[in-house]
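In line with agreed milestones, the collection of sequences with tokenised folds has grown. One record among many is set out beneath this paragraph:
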Amino acid sequence: MDAGQDGPQPVTEPADACRTRVVLDIVGNKWSLLVVRQLSDGPRRFTELKKAVDGISQRMLTVTLRSLERDGILTRTVHEVMPPHVSYELTEMGITLRRATAPLLEWSVAHLARIDEARAAHADRTGTSTAP
């Protein structure tokens, strides 16, 4: 790519390129982007997230939230009210992750039916299951 078109490109060390797996683990995680998407409109409580993310278990939501908090994608706030409750909110980095992945989620929704059709056609041709 010509550096003049998009500005200078950062120099990426081989070790840095390999470390991008850390980011890909976040993006590729089955639940992370769904949780990030639910937080895009503002803070949510655990129970709200549990209801909004179809199919996620309580344990997996807990693991996912802890991981996203550890990676600086969201913050966890304990509200000292009666009864106490906890809310989760995207950090600045989490907001940029949401913006970067929004097209992928939109593409997924737009193509879900075609993917289901392709899987069914493949299963018919090969005599296998349509499960991913």
Q: What stands out?
A: The beta strands are 44-45, 74-79, 85-90. The longest strand covers residues 74-79.
